[in-house]
Design goal:
Blueprint (H helix, E strand, L loop, with lengths): L9 E7 L6 H6 L12 H13 L6 H17 L2 E9 L14 H9 L7 E2 L2 E5 L5 H13 L5 E5 L7 H13 L3 E6 L5 H11 L3 E4 L7 H10 L2 E4 L1 H6 L11 H6 L3 E4 L4 H4 L3 H10 L5 H20 L2
Helix pairs in contact: 5-6
The structure holds zinc ion.
């Protein structure tokens, strides 16, 4: 008799909310997004982003659909906790869907509810687009609102910019939020170290270049920092050679706390279970090691849900 396989659960803690669904779901609901066979580097991704996605953050219907697509995909692939990052720019005075109305923004996010999916919203700050003069206050108010589980800093890594964002992290850490930062994807291990010092983050998004430095890996391990890694994103954007040679292997052997995630499902066409499968098929990590990581990601997700 064939044994029914027990359903496996996952967490997705590195998930850029708008880009978390599938093109098929969007197409079925009247929103066109091209099926990308393979993203060829960051410029290719930016082109697609600018042409098909950017405008939707200013359109309530499209945005709702993108978020719905993300959460449907999570549920279908066994993700039981997701930490979608979303930009504060939805409350932008001129272009935002909720101009100057953070409470409406939060109400909107709260309207996404599922019994079988925990949604831990992360407030996202884009290094390239952030305008300190106009936006510092609104970001700080949203951090202090107590609604968001964490904050994240994304886009172009730049050591000189850390000082601009330091007090957001100080505030968020004081409140016990899950502080995340994108680092060590584009720049090397030294930048990861600088972010550890400047932001005292609980999670690092990607962080893969940390393998350049056993010393810095030791620091991260001691500090208990979790690395939310997205292998297919790294390979397609050219930050890792291949799945088989992905730095996650060395990170595992250096006892770092790891999770495996999607980054942008719409672009990379790879769900959380698919990411595990690709690492197994390419001999990057064994079944047991991958199971360790899966268990760890559920543990980290539960801690995050309890925090704040
Ligand atoms: Zn990311």
């Amino acid at each position: 008799m064939e044994q029914k396989k027990k359903k496996k659960f996952y967490a997705d803690l590195h998930n850029h909310s708008f880009a978390g669904g599938t093109p098929e779901f969007l197409e079925d609901h009247g929103l066109h997004f091209p099926r990308v066979e393979r993203v060829n580097g960051i410029e290719h991704m930016n082109e697609i982003w600018n042409e098909y996605l950017y405008k939707h953050q200013y359109d309530l219907h499209a945005l709702s659909l993108l978020l719905k697509a993300n959460f449907e995909n999570c549920r279908q692939t066994g993700v039981k906790t997701v930490a979608p990052s979303i930009t504060y720019r939805l409350v932008d005075k001129e272009k935002g869907i909720f101009p100057d109305a953070p409470e409406k923004f939060i109400e909107f996010l709260k309207s996404f509810k599922h019994d079988d999916l925990t949604i831990n919203w992360i407030l996202s700050i884009n290094r390239d687009r952030y305008r300190p003069d106009q936006e510092r206050g609104v970001v700080m108010d949203l951090i202090k609102s107590g609604f968001f589980k964490g904050i994240d800093l994304s886009s172009t890594e730049d050591p000189d910019l850390n000082k601009v964002f330091k007090d957001f992290y100080k505030q968020a850490n004081q409140q016990g939020m899950v502080t995340q930062v994108h680092a060590g994807e584009q720049l090397g291990a030294d930048y990861v170290m600088q972010c550890i010092k400047d932001f005292e983050p609980k999670h690092i998004q990607h962080g893969i270049s940390i393998v350049q430095s056993p010393k810095i890996m030791k620091v991260a391990q001691k500090e208990g920092i979790t690395f939310n890694v997205c292998p297919t994103s790294n390979v397609e954007l050219g930050y890792a050679k291949s799945h088989g040679e992905h730095p996650i292997r060395a990170m595992y052997y250096n006892d770092l706390s790891l999770t495996i995630n999607t980054d942008d499902m719409l672009f990379f066409n790879s769900s959380v279970p698919e990411e595990y499968k690709r690492l197994k098929q390419n001999g990057t990590l064994t079944d047991r090691q991958l199971e360790d990581i899966r268990q760890n990601s559920l543990k980290v997700a539960d801690e995050m849900t309890r925090d704040v």
